[in-house]
């Protein structure tokens, strides 16, 4: 093929790649819209290029919030996990559970980071540098990221028995960006699944939900929470018995508390003896990897969570 024809074919292909904003299927059967990328963004996210060191807008950026995939909007990193590495690119010691996939780089030496949802190229993972307690550095291109301030990202924490079932329904809801199974409400630092199962840690099995306030609301998600478990049961859910299986809404602000109180009042008016408690949120500890997206991996459905319309 002549050089001119090759160049023309490349330009046509590249233009099609960056100009398409298409629907795609992500985990849980939900669809996502891919953002229309600029030439520079596509050169990194799709063509796996690298921006010049010290040129990215987030290299020395320190605002509190969440870093999202530029192409699909999936939350990837928390600002609390960002650190200064002097490498010239934003550095994170940990990614949000399940959001980043590590694969062998074509160069045969490094490990590439890609967005789990859309496959967009983010950067590389380096291990063994002893820069953080996790001994990991996610070296990410700023151009692969969007940033959302903490106050503009919706966040909710629900506990309704086994967190596998709680997550199953919440992660399927429209507007939900990310769900994480974990433990909260107790006193033990960095608890394990075994610690919580003993019933002495004080923690409940819970699910943290990150959501887009433009697409859903805390009230909508709280209604789903009530409609996918039995809020009348105390310290149990179906066959699962123990304080770790209690029904709790861990509210993050006063507005969430008032919304939850309103919905509980509505259910009580309908004759339900609601046992759900409201507790101010504290540290949320992520559960082990095998507990994340449990039913999606198993390709089965919850044994003690069933949807029942209540509102």
Please give a structural write-up.
22% of the residues lie in helices and 27% in strands. Helix 5 crosses helix 6 (254-269). With 311 residues, it is α+β, with helices and mostly antiparallel strands. The chain is built from 7 helices and 19 strands. The model is unreliable at 1-22 (pLDDT under 50). It is elongated and about 60 Å long. The strands form 5 sheets. The protein has a 6-stranded antiparallel sheet, with no helix packed on it. It has a 6-stranded mixed sheet with strand order 18-17-12-14-13-19, with helices on one face. A 3-stranded antiparallel sheet has the order 4-3-11, with no helix packed on it. The chain has 2 domains: 37-46 and 55-149, Metal Binding Protein, Guanine Nucleotide Exchange Factor, Chain A, CATH 2.170.150; 153-298, 2-Layer Sandwich (Peptide Methionine Sulfoxide Reductase, Chain A), CATH 3.30.1060.
Count of beta strands: 19
Query: Order of strands in the sheet with the most strands?
Result: 5-6-10-9-8-7
Radius of gyration: 22 Å
First-to-last CA distance: 65 Å
Number of helices: 7
- CATH class of the largest domain reads Alpha Beta
**CATH fold name of the largest domain:** Peptide Methionine Sulfoxide Reductase, Chain A
If you average the pLDDT, what whole number results? 91
The sequence of SSEs as H and E is: HEEHEEEEEEEEEEHEHEHEEEHEEH
Uncertain residue segments: 1-22
Structural class: alpha+beta
């Amino acid at each position: 093929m002549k050089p001119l024809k090759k160049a023309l074919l490349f330009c046509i292909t590249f233009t099609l790649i960056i100009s398409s904003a298409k629907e795609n299927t992500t985990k849980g059967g939900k669809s996502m819209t891919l953002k229309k990328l600029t030439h520079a963004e596509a050169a990194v996210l799709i063509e796996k290029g690298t921006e010049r060191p010290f040129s990215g807008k987030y290299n020395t950026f320190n605002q509190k919030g969440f870093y999202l995939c530029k192409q699909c909007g999936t939350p990837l990193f928390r600002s609390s996990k960002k650190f200064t590495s002097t490498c010239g690119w934003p550095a994170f010691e940990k990614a949000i559970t399940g959001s980043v996939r590590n694969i062998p780089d074509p160069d045969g030496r490094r490990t590439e980071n890609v967005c789990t949802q859309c496959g967009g190229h983010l950067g590389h993972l380096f291990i063994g540098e002893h820069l953080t307690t996790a001994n990991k550095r996610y070296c990410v291109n700023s151009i692969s990221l969007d940033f959302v301030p903490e106050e503009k990202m919706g966040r909710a924490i629900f506990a309704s028995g086994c967190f596998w079932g709680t997550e199953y329904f919440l992660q399927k809801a429209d507007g939900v960006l990310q769900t994480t199974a974990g433990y909260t409400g107790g006193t033990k630092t960095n608890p394990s699944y075994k610690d919580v199962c003993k019933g002495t840690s004080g923690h409940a099995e819970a699910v943290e939900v990150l959501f887009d306030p433009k697409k859903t609301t805390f009230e909508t998600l709280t209604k789903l929470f009530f409609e996918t478990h039995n809020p009348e049961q105390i310290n149990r859910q179906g066959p699962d018995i123990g304080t770790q299986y209690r029904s709790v809404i861990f509210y993050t602000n006063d507005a969430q508390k008032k919304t939850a109180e309103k919905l509980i009042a509505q259910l009580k008016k309908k004759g339900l003896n609601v046992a759900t408690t409201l507790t101010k949120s504290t540290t949320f500890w992520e559960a082990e990897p095998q507990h994340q997206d449990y039913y999606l991996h198993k390709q089965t459905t919850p044994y003690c969570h069933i949807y029942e319309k209540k509102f």
